[in-house]
Amino acid sequence: MRIRSLVVLMAISFSAFSFAGEAEVKWEGVDKYTDFKPANSNEERYQEKVKEQLTEHIHQLAGELPDGQKLHMVVTNVDLTGRLEPTFGRSTSNYVRIVREIDFPRISFNYQLTDSSGEVIKEGQEKLKNMGFNYDSLASVKRRDDLYFEKEMLTRWFNETLGEKS
Q1: How far apart are CA 104 and CA 102, in angstroms?
Q2: Which pLDDT value is given to residue 153?
Q3: How far apart are CA 126 and CA 92, in angstroms?
Q4: What's the pLDDT score for residue 109?
């Protein structure tokens, strides 16, 4: 009995997943982004990790779109929360990301939302910024995610622009 219930629940979960909207994210001109550098790690690996995490977040958001809809995004600029500042140790200099109220996150992208036949439903060019990022009451709890503020900004944009209320 339990196994049958579990199989039915999994089938419902997978079928609901397959009918959700999807996303395609491209990263253009990464080497010219305003602030897309690591404090103390390999730059290429860091950028790939950040792109992967933000792309995954956008895919999760797109999963909330109606059946057959697809969000196409081309990210053209990223300015991560905070600024890299040099620190000097005994034998080498390192960098640390310092977060101040004036170093808010920004992201620019072009987007297009299409239906199942490929017809454009909505499109535009966005330059998001979250100048109030430091005042979020949940921020201290969520700071374990290095990209919390960027993801929160994308979620707010998605809900306001492409969500059910739009």
Answers
A1: 6
A2: 94
A3: 40
A4: 98
* Inter-residue contact 78 to 124 (CB < 8 Å): no
User: Lowest-confidence range among 10-19, 32-41, 148-157?
Assistant: 10-19
The first and second tokens of residue 44, run together, are 């290429």
Q: What distance in Å separates the CA atoms of residue 110 and residue 123, rounded to the nearest whole number? A: 8
At residue 90, the pLDDT reads 63
Q: What is the pLDDT of residue 139?
A: 53
List of E strands, the chain: 22-27, 70-79, 83-88, 93-98, 106-114, 120-129
How far apart (Å, rounded) are the C-alpha atoms in residues 78 and 67?
A: 30
Instruction: Identify any residues that bridge with 35 across adjacent strands, giving them in sequence order.
Output: 79
List the beta strands (DSSP E) in 7-135.
22-27, 70-79, 83-88, 93-98, 106-114, 120-129
Structure-token pair, residue 32: 């010219």
Q: What is the pLDDT of residue 4?
A: 46
Q: How far is CA 61 from CA 15, 21, 78, 156, 159, in A?
A: 18, 9, 19, 10, 9
